[in-house]
Design brief:
By secondary structure, the protein is α/β, with parallel strands linked by helices. It has two domains: 2-195, Rossmann fold (3-Layer(aba) Sandwich); 210-426, 3-Layer(aba) Sandwich (Rossmann fold). It has 18 helices and 14 strands. Helix 8 (175-185) links the parallel strand 7 (168-171) and strand 8 (192-195). Helix 4 (70-76) packs across helix 5. It is globular, with a radius of gyration of 23 Å. The structure holds nicotinamide-adenine-dinucleotide. Nicotinamide-adenine-dinucleotide binds at residues 6-12, 29-32, 35, 70, 83-86, 98, 101-102, 120-121, 151, 153, 155, 259-260. Nicotinamide-adenine-dinucleotide binds next to helix 1 and helix 5.
Length: 433
């Protein structure tokens, strides 16, 4: 099939590449000329495992190309995916202007029947809005259908998740559009949920709200563990073996970040508010998440007494491992708070340093964890990259000024690391009296 993808960020690029890999004729478009130039020169604008090889192969096989001309891309596809950003406004409502702009461009440029699919995460009823924009502005007398097909991929495993998703959600009110979408997705073996458009839109916000709530839930339990002298990892294991709960997303730490959970769970509160519902549970989820970052800064302050002029080494900046994405990464708040108290920050991340350099001032970046450890009075683990789990701890200890590790992701076994001679503080495993 001929497929168009508008917006080649994390979602659009994975979508375009995977549909090309499945044998479709795909064009990806973006208004960011720099991004398109990079893609056309074989340079990936984002870090995502497995992406580069897949893009290269499909470009070579002429199933995938990129343009910054939206008009061309709208003319090409039988199915047009809208994968543009839906960032938060200052009040956490969803900024829909990028989706609306694309809808307008589609209206002005379609010349034949198209299935127009919004993959971006949008508030319930956005499908109706998109339909109205197109209907009100369409130039030619052509038919079209709007479909909601929310995306559930995780950064770091985007390709795997797109090829083998847990489910595919298709929200549509046209049989013709449903058949086209089913045909397009037929090579992917996953449960297909066919719904009305509004339910599909809500599935996405409800899923992210639930996952965020699970994280805030275990972080609250972690706080009770700290106060009572219990171990949150053991509690999470014991709770997680219950099949009705499961262990996924029961990892205590410094809270969730990234481009989805913070904005989507805040946005869902706003969406509920518009319908007159006070979403108390999700408000608490959001508050607990903010509080967890503050609590971690408090742990650092307590351990160091004063932060003034203290050399603080940071391992991990991205909001989670295997991505270079810094959007709403907890490291941003934590580093800025430590700097306010006079802390001198040295940091390392395997992939996110380029992006981090545009966010932080007065942060010294190092080429590896050992450079960061040198003369540091504390090492803070802020992202659970695998390479931090396999450090030469003897070498780290010999380089540090004081052998103190405060672990915001609970990557070490406390017994093992204490045996190496470190003072080790982690989340939900320290008895705070
Ligand atoms: P992104 O910011 O990485 O990419 C969005 C792209 O859209 C940008 O490259 C931007 O230049 C482009 N764009 C904006 N306006 C355009 C226009 N008029 N024409 C062409 N291109 C345009 O965003 P993302 O992370 O890929 O997320 C996209 C959507 O998918 C969001 O709604 C997000 O909430 C949702 N989502 C993201 C993830 C994730 O893990 N990143 C997962 C599931 C869903």
């Amino acid at each position: 099939m001929k497929i168009s993808v508008i917006g080649t960020g994390y979602v659009g690029l994975a979508t375009a590449t995977v549909f090309a890999e499945l044998g479709n004729d795909v064009i990806g478009a973006d208004i960011d000329k720099d991004k398109i130039d990079k893609l056309n020169n074989g340079i990936m604008p984002i870090f995502e495992p497995g992406l580069q090889e897949l893009v290269e192969r499909n470009v070579k096989e002429k199933r995938l190309r990129f343009t910054h001309n939206n008009k061309e891309v709208i003319g090409h596809g039988d199915v047009i995916f809208i994968c543009v950003g839906t960032p938060p406004k200052d009040n956490w409502e969803v900024e829909l202007k990028y989706v609306e702009n694309v809808a307008l461009e589609i209206a002005q440029n379609i010349r034949s029947y198209k299935v127009i699919v919004h993959k971006s995460t949008v508030p319930v009823e956005t499908g109706d809005k998109v339909k109205k924009i197109i209907k009100d502005n369409i130039k030619e007398n052509v038919d079209f259908d709007v479909v909601s097909n929310p995306e559930f991929l995780r950064e770091g495993t985007a390709i795997e998740d797109t090829l083998e998703p847990d489910r595919i959600v298709i929200g549509a009110d046209s049989k013709k559009a449903i058949e086209i979408m089913k045909k397009l997705y037929s090579p992917i073996k996953a449960p297909l949920i066919i719904t009305d458009i509004r339910s599909a839109e809500l599935i996405k916000h409800a899923s992210n709200a639930f996952l965020a709530t699970k994280i805030s839930f275990i972080n609250s339990v972690a706080r009770i563990c700290e106060l009572s002298g219990a171990d949150v990892e053991k509690v999470a294991d014991g709770v997680g073996y219950d099949k009705r709960i499961n262990r996924y997303f029961l990892n205590a730490g410094i809270g969730y970040g990234g481009s989805c959970f913070p904005k989507d769970s805040q946005a869902f509160v706003k969406i509920a508010e518009k319908y007159g519902y006070d979403y108390k549970l999700l408000k608490a989820t959001n508050e607990i998440n903010e509080d967890q970052k503050k609590h971690f800064v408090g742990m650092v302050k307590k351990a160091l007494n004063s932060l003034n002029d203290k050399k603080i080494g940071i391992l991990g900046l991205s909001f989670k491992p295997n991505t270079d994405d810094m959007r709403f990464a907890p490291s941003i708040y934590i580093i800025q708070e430590l700097q306010k108290e006079g802390g001198k920050i040295k940091a390392y991340d395997p992939e996110a340093m380029e992006k981090a350099k545009t966010i932080f001032s007065d942060v010294e970046f190092g080429k590896d964890p050992y450079e960061i450890a040198k003369d540091s009075e504390v090492l803070l683990i802020l992202t659970e990259w695998n390479e931090f789990k396999e450090l030469d701890l003897k070498k780290i200890k010999s380089l540090m000024k004081t052998p103190l590790i405060i672990d915001g992701r609970n990557i070490y076994n406390p017994e093992d690391i204490k045996k190496e001679g470190f003072t080790y503080i982690s989340v939900g495993r320290e008895h705070v009296v």
